[in-house]
Amino acid sequence: MRNLVKDILELFNEIKLDKKEYMKKDPSIEHEWQLIFHAGFLSLKLYRWSHLFYINNFKFLAYFLHFISRTLFAVDINPAAKIEPGVVIDHGIGTVIGSTATIGSGTLIYHGVTIGARNIQKGKRHPDIGRNVLIGSGAKILGAIKIGDNAQIGSNSVVLRDVPPNTKVVGIPAKIVGFVNNEDSKIKSIL
């Protein structure tokens, strides 16, 4: 049995880390109070609450918050998905994250991104996204694949295969076009 109080305290720490990353990675946010109007941040915050309810077996409440996020912000993050603290969903609009997806801390996701399935099947069917990954707007990452740490996915790319760490991929289907050097790996755009 899970400890709900411990999970709630952990949730507040996760939201704090999310705020810190937003302040660092979104140059349009000059003051922390601006986050109360940021669709990406608010949808991530609602996801955090819905995930807490989901893992504590309050699934009706989890899916109710999921519905609210989809309705208010056009962001669809399944409550079962596992997102580490310190992820940034910039703009948010049109972002879809499936139920068996995992996303590592430091990842920056732009609007219109789908982290989804390729087939209707039971079990693991969504991607595992590493840490400090940049996902350009409109990118589609589909299937039970792995995206390595510090990878960069170009805008509107369709990723259907594993992406090694520290690589840049673009295209339909996405292909490796370069590498991210270690000094560069703290999220810089490739396009």
Strand order of the largest sheet: 3-6-9-12-14-15
CATH fourth-tier homologous superfamily: Hexapeptide repeat proteins
Which structural class do you get from the secondary structure elements? alpha/beta
Number of strands: 15
The CATH topology is given as UDP N-Acetylglucosamine Acyltransferase, domain 1
Portion in strands? 15-25%
Shape: globular
Order of helices and strands: HHHEEEEEEEEEEEEEEE
- State Rg: 16 Å
Distance from first to last alpha carbon: 47 Å
What is the typical, i.e. mean, pLDDT?
93
Q: Low-confidence runs (pLDDT<50, min 5 residues)? A: none
Largest sheet: 6 strands, mixed
Instruction: Estimate the helix proportion, in percent.
Output: 25-40%
Number of helices: 3
CATH class: Mainly Beta
**Reported CATH architecture:** 3 Solenoid
Number of domains: 1
SSE map:
Blueprint: H1 4-25, H2 39-55, H3 59-73, E1 76-77, E2 82-83, E3 88-89, E4 96-97, E5 102-103, E6 108-109, E7 114-116, E8 128-129, E9 134-135, E10 140-142, E11 146-147, E12 152-153, E13 158-159, E14 167-170, E15 175-179
Parallel strand pairs: 1-4, 2-5, 3-6, 4-7, 5-8, 6-9, 7-10, 8-11, 9-12, 10-13, 12-14
Antiparallel strand pairs: 14-15
Helix pairs in contact: 1-2, 2-3
Structure commentary:
The chain has helices at residues 4-25, 39-55, 59-73, and strands at residues 76-77, 82-83, 88-89, 96-97, 102-103, 108-109, 114-116, 128-129, 134-135, 140-142, 146-147, 152-153, 158-159, 167-170, 175-179. By secondary structure, it is an alpha/beta fold. It has one domain: UDP N-Acetylglucosamine Acyltransferase, domain 1, CATH 2.160.10. Helix 1 runs antiparallel to helix 2 (39-55) and helix 2 packs antiparallel against helix 3. The longest helix has 22 residues, at 4-25. A 6-stranded mixed beta sheet has the order 3-6-9-12-14-15. Strands 1-4-7-10-13 form a 5-stranded parallel beta sheet. A 4-stranded parallel beta sheet has the order 2-5-8-11, with no helix packed on it. The radius of gyration is 16 Å and the shape is globular. The mean pLDDT is 93. The relative contact order is 0.10. Helix content is 28%, strand content 19%.
